[in-house]
Design goal:
about 280 residues; alpha/beta; 12 strands; elongated
């Protein structure tokens, strides 16, 4: 049985009803960036910071990130693994028509389906390029069987979705608006993650470990953190990140610091949409 049979490409990605957009549960996403040019240093990856922002500002989270080379065996193995996980995944790069673009074929192999010419993708390519669509550009319409298209507002060359994976071009100016469309159409928005913290000075982090253990156990719905900063202004950023119960947890934290006579000041806000 193929991955596409186990988890239909359309399963779980129906367009949202606007009435339930704010009621959606937060989703944890994966991100895969593909390209030898990123790994060898010819280009710097801009996708990680951008996707943390795009996903985070809608109240969702980026749970993991891979950077992979243009290697068919490696790509197929990684995609086969991620397709068997529940996380929706954005995949950037390698969907073009040049010989080093392996992502379309690897996605098909990972899902155990055939690579087939998608009629609508072919029409879009023919409409844009006419006779010059052949014999090379039309290869971009050869997609895994069962794939659905993702519109490209920049040059109309579509991406595709299969098994909760959203395959996008490597070019940021195309990938990012296409990802925004997918997020807004199929995942919506939920309560954003907030962060609250204090700056602790004058004590080693090890002295805070017993308090950290207690807070972690008492507030499991929140992410407790302790971030040491060195240099001219040494301090520990000490607090919580989460959606619900943040104020109560911070009151408990401050009270515990006061009782232990540990000095602290309120920490400035940080942008958690890209955290």
């Amino acid at each position: 049985m193929s991955v596409a049979d186990e988890r239909s490409p359309a399963a779980g990605i129906e367009p949202l009803d606007e009435s339930d957009e704010e009621a959606r549960e937060p989703t944890a996403f994966g991100l895969i960036v593909i390209g030898d040019e990123v790994l060898n240093g010819a280009r710097v990856d801009a996708h990680l910071a951008a996707f943390k922002r795009l996903i985070g500002e809608r109240g969702h989270t980026l749970a993991w990130y891979w950077m992979l080379p243009d290697d068919p065996d490696g790509l197929t193995a990684h995609l086969r693994f991620s397709m068997r996980r529940p996380d929706p995944v954005f995949v950037c790069g390698g969907i073009g028509a040049t010989p080093d673009d392996h992502t379309r074929a690897c996605a098909a192999a990972a899902a155990h389906v055939e690579l087939m010419r998608h009629p609508e993708a072919a029409r879009l390519i023919e409409d844009k390029f006419g006779e010059s669509a052949y014999p090379h550009r039309i290869l971009m319409a050869d997609l895994p069987a069962g794939a659905e298209l993702i519109p490209n507002p920049v040059n109309q060359m579509p991406g595709f979705t299969l098994a909760r994976h959203w395959f996008l071009p490597g070019f940021p100016k195309m990938a990012w608006p296409m990802a925004e469309w997918a997020l807004d159409q199929h995942f919506g928005r939920c309560v954003q993650v907030r962060e609250s913290a204090v700056l602790v000075r004058g004590v080693p982090e090890s002295q805070l470990i017993p308090l950290m253990r207690r807070l972690t156990l008492e507030y499991p719905e929140l992410k407790h953190f302790s971030l040491p900063h060195m240099g001219d202004n040494p301090h520990i950023r000490f607090g919580f990140r989460g959606r619900d119960g943040l104020d109560a947890a911070m009151r408990d934290l401050r009270q515990a610091l006061d009782e232990a006579a540990i000095a602290y000041v309120e920490a400035p806000d940080e942008d958690t949409s890209s955290a």
